[in-house]
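Technical appendix A lists one of the benchmark inputs used to test multi-chain prediction within the project. The record comprises two sequence entries:
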Amino acid sequence: MKIAVVGKGGSGKTTTSAVLARTFARRGHDTLALDCDSNPNLGISLGLGEEATEHLVSVRDAVDTGDEEHASDADDLVQRFGVEAPDGVRLAVVTAIQNPQPGCP
Amino acid sequence: MRVAFVGKGGAGKSSLAGTFARVLASTGERVLALDSDPMPGMAFSLGLDRTDAGLPDDAVEAYDDEDGRCRYALRAGLTGTETVERYARRSPDGVRFLQLGKARGPRWDNTRQHFAFQRVLDDLPGDGWSVVGDLPGGTRQPFLTWGRYAETFLVVVEPAPASLLTARRLARLAATERAPRVLAVANKTRHPHDAQWVSERTGLDVVGTIPYDPALVDADRKGRALLDADPHGVAAAAVRLLVQSLQEQKEPT
């Protein structure tokens, strides 16, 4: 099952995603939570804590600065950049923009 | 003054920005309100009965650049200031309102208006005008693109971890760019220490504190402006104080 949660800002996307992910994991499903928000906060709602959630983003910074190799495929991304969240949910952040350039909307 | 509201989605940017713009106008300033959030929240908080305030098709024309790529600009002879004069809608308290990057009327493709509006931002009305902007939620490029006219960014922060984290990210992004003034507005506060918490956890000065106000929630639910639904309530009073605080501070040069 693959679910994407969308909606207006502040309507509860992140909270809903986190509860869904942990519920599936508790029921025994291997669960991957992907934070595709350019302002990724899913770690907080999953119960990972603020510090760990901020650290996830700094992993992306490392890629941007060339300290880390880009992921070669999806599995590599989840393995190297994902972290273990409560109930065994695997969390990966895929779209944080830390160093925006002018021009793109 | 030229301010832009930023912050996490749902933090209350649109509700505060529209209210702020009207309060500012009621003090006698000429105010242009710019909504660059894809959601039409600011029109509601301004009290407009129509949310459609984008650029009409005939204000925009396409041209090919040197490399043959299609670009969009305001039609020949049309300046940004004239665009505001001709196409901005007028809200209660005399605020002029324009939605950035949107087309007038229902459609999917806003590409023309989206890029042409960059020219409006490059040529906003100058002396004698205040600008109040409502930017999209999150951390996506608020300082470089849609908010580049702002001298002061107001980060709307709820006293909650995700909102605080977003504010810290915004503060970092601001520091790496042209270093505009960035201040926090603590919103939906319920505890006397919330503003201090916001300040400590974001590293930003808190210039205003808006207590949680059921009247604001109720106005949002009805799609009404706070200043029309509950003009003398707690949240409205707090926005007046915010406007006053900023008017008393000297703008950075």
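Residues 58 and 75 of chain B are 7 Å apart (CA to CA). The two ends of chain B are 11 Å apart (CA to CA). Comparable benchmark entries are summarised in Table A2.
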